[in-house]
Amino acid sequence: MYFMISFYLLTISLILFFSSLIFILFNIKILIKINIMKFMSFNMEFIMFIDWMSLIFISVVFMISSMVLIYSMEYMYNHIYIERFMKLIMIFFLSMMLMIISPNMLSMLFGWDGLGLSSYCLIIFYQNKKTFNSGMITILMNRIGDINILIMISLLINFNSMNFLFLKNYNNIIMVMIMMAAITKSAQIPFSTWLPLAMAAPTPVSSLVHSSTLVTAGIYLLIRLSYLLNKKFLMMLMFISLWTMLLASSTAMFEFDLKKIIALSTLSQLALMFLSISMNLSLLSFFHLITHAMFKSLLFLCSGIIIHNYFNNQDIRMISMMNYNMPLINMIFNIASLTLCGMPFLSGFYSKDLIIEFFNMNNMNSFTFNLMYVCMMMTTIYSFRLIYYISMKSTKMIYFNKFYSSNKMNYSIYLLFLFSMFYGSMMNWILINSMNLIILNIKMKILIWKLMINGVMMIVYLSMKMKLNKIMIKFWYWLNYLWFLNNMFKKSKMNLFKMNLNMNLIEMMWLEYLSSKKLIYMMFKFNKNKNFNKLNFSIIMTFISYIIIIMFLF
């Protein structure tokens, strides 16, 4: 049954892809509106907006989902709850499809919350203490973004419509809400903790979550609403993305968990997409989004086979000599890693190179410029480090086992390998249809290639000469805990946040002041003011709700 579902998904994906070419050629846009109910002057509507961008993205989601379903049929073959797992995956990608085609905040909320709840169920699928903790941190951090979406819906009621078309009239407060929702969903700093912890889920889930569904929802929302961002928001977004890129790249350089390295590379690439949006390059951000989805899902599916064959071991120090044990999977994994660091002329090169060259053309200060290029060099370092440990470095441990290979798992990897090789060049011809005038001198043009070569030389030197001392151990500990973000979000030792010590004080002071009688008194008092209107009322209520939410969170 699931094989037929994956076949239908693959067929629909190809149909949607060719339909998107027609939509691009004739500039077709379709808006479907369904009235659910009408309350006074407010219409509650379910709206679907179909254009070339939504069709291409849905085709990518369906393509990866079909491959993940085929892969999961073999990967979860002996599991007692395989039916539950498959149904959760289908709910997961259908929620993403609903989020993609919705230009209405209310209809988008169904897909947005569906992603959060189904991802929580998939992360805790193995049901142990580690997965429960990871799932709880994931869902609580995503709830912060969901709260912002709900507050934004309450503000949009003032316009009697929840469509994105009316957001241009009043963009400051709403754009803060949208940015918070996007940053939490796409795990930008300081909400980066949940993304590596989500690796507690099964590998097919990681392939789907980190390529085209959960973490890309926030970036897709910002791509759709990028025309609303002013200079202040763009500058803020640029610094958030650069620091997230530095955090992810520096941590991945010293990480030994295979799935965590790939997850941190996802975080780094998401930060690159945010950086391109901050330079008003939303089309290039979408281009990198769909090419990244292909090779990142391929990396996770390859890592699943590797973990399977090495006795569920995820430590790259114990995984070695794959070029002898699994030569074909090793070749595909290495090419996907080279695609990640932007090796020409693979799929990731076409989008990444354009973003870097447009970044060079902007008049950035030296700090921003150097930070960007340091992050690019670190991306090369952890990609080649992964290749070195898995393919070249020998280990003292000797495995006497028969390496397992399944046709179902291999078929999905082979098809994704073809797409990750050629999808970038193909989409470059389709999306980038006009001449981009890039004026750079030869030094700036070859600077990124110099840094890539320096990164390769540095990883060879570090692998041979680096010795652990007290300073290096502390530095590794600091990086391993994501600059201590994990400790900050997992627990706090401050007595201020212990509810059992402060319950009486809270009940006597804050809750008494913000009780229903006091709120009604404040509303009557404000109504006497002539300058009071609905907009001011919504802002005040938003502020009060934030106080209550923050108070109850701790």
What does this structure look like?
It is a single chain. With 554 residues, the chain is mainly alpha-helical. The protein folds into three domains: 1-228, no CATH class; 235-484, no CATH class; 495-553. Helices cover 71% and strands 3% of the residues. The protein contains 24 helices and two strands. The protein has helices spanning 2-26, 52-75, 82-100, 105-123, 129-156, 172-185, 194-197, 203-209, 214-224, 231-253, 258-278, 282-309, 322-325, 327-340, 347-361, 366-392, 407-431, 442-465, 470-480, 485-490, 499-508, 510-513, 516-527, 534-553; strands at residues 30-39, 42-50. A two-stranded antiparallel sheet has the order 1-2. A hairpin with a 2-residue loop joins strand 1 (30-39) and strand 2. The longest helix has 28 residues, at 129-156. It is globular and about 75 Å long. It starts with a helix and ends with a helix. The model is unreliable at 492-497 and 530-535 (pLDDT under 50).
The total count of strands amounts to 2
Let me know the average pLDDT: 79
Side by side, the strands of the main sheet go 1-2
Secondary-structure element pattern, one letter each: HEEHHHHHHHHHHHHHHHHHHHHHHH
Helix tally equals 24
Structurally, the number of domains stands at 3
Q: Main sheet, how many strands, which sense, barrel?
A: 2 strands, antiparallel
